[in-house]
Write a structure and sequence with these properties.
This protein has 233 residues and is mainly alpha-helical. 63% of the residues lie in helices and 9% in strands. Strands 2-1-3 form a three-stranded antiparallel sheet. α1 runs antiparallel to α9. About 6% of the residues have low confidence.
Length: 233
């Protein structure tokens, strides 16, 4: 069981890092301020106009790399407004989220290395519990950023123009707002993997400390009678 733990735990850690990087981290949905506008948004979505957006860490890094730190657009984004300029109101939150989320990923790699090299289960549990704390911090930071986005501090028209070439969608942003902003599957996959590692470690400890043993009941066989004794009867 110790060998299985040292093999499976690093696999779980690497899987969590891959999911956190490539799965969607953020989910945004557009909606109207009134029921009439909400109906228009619903109708527009039925005609292929995208009203829901999801972004992974990989996609966000690509967006950040298309702009200078000063917010000046590079060749890849000259046709749209600077991403850095658009997200300026929530830029501190994004940076803080990235820092803590990267720490969570690094912690996964570290606990995977510890599990593979030493098999110290107590250390792995402590590190995974620390990862859960970092995830909770990320949730708080994202909630603060989402409140600003839903509150209208981000110019929606400029932001949507970066991800949609639809003229109808750009016109629609003049009368709609971000109605929903949440963390998506990628983040909760990382969060859940920390819990899974803890449960897996607890289960491994139980199996190692109290191994399952098969007790066989040995029955004493009756001695066979000699043939001579049988014939005497």
């Amino acid at each position: 069981m110790k060998i299985a733990y040292r093999i499976i735990t690093p696999i779980l850690a690497i899987g969590a890092v891959v999911m956190g990087f490539f799965l969607k981290l953020f989910y945004f949905a557009l909606g109207g301020l009134t029921d009439e506008i909400s109906s228009i948004v619903t109708l527009a979505s039925q005609f292929g106009v995208s009203t829901k957006y999801e972004f992974s860490a990989f996609e966000i890094i690509k967006l950040l790399l298309t702009t200078d730190l000063s917010g000046a657009a590079t060749d890849a984004s000259k046709e749209s407004a600077s991403f850095m300029t658009i997200i300026q109101p929530v830029l501190p939150h994004i940076i803080a989220f990235i820092v803590f989320f990267v720490l969570t990923m690094l912690l996964f790699l570290a606990l995977g290395a510890v599990a593979a090299a030493t098999g110290k289960r107590k250390t792995v549990m402590i590190m995974s519990a620390g990862g859960l704390v970092l995830c909770f911090i990320c949730i708080i930071i994202s909630r603060l950023a989402f409140n600003k986005i839903i509150g209208g501090e981000i110019p929606l028209t400029d932001l949507v123009s970066m991800f949609s070439d639809s003229t109808w969608m750009q016109l629609l942003t003049a009368v709609v707002t971000v109605s929903s902003a949440t963390l998506s599957a990628g983040f909760y996959a990382v969060f859940g993997m920390h819990i899974l590692v803890i449960l897996w470690t607890v289960l491994t400890n139980m199996l190692i400390n109290t191994p399952i043993e098969i007790h066989r009941k040995h029955r004493r066989k009756k001695p066979m009678k000699k043939l001579s004794a049988v014939f005497r009867k």
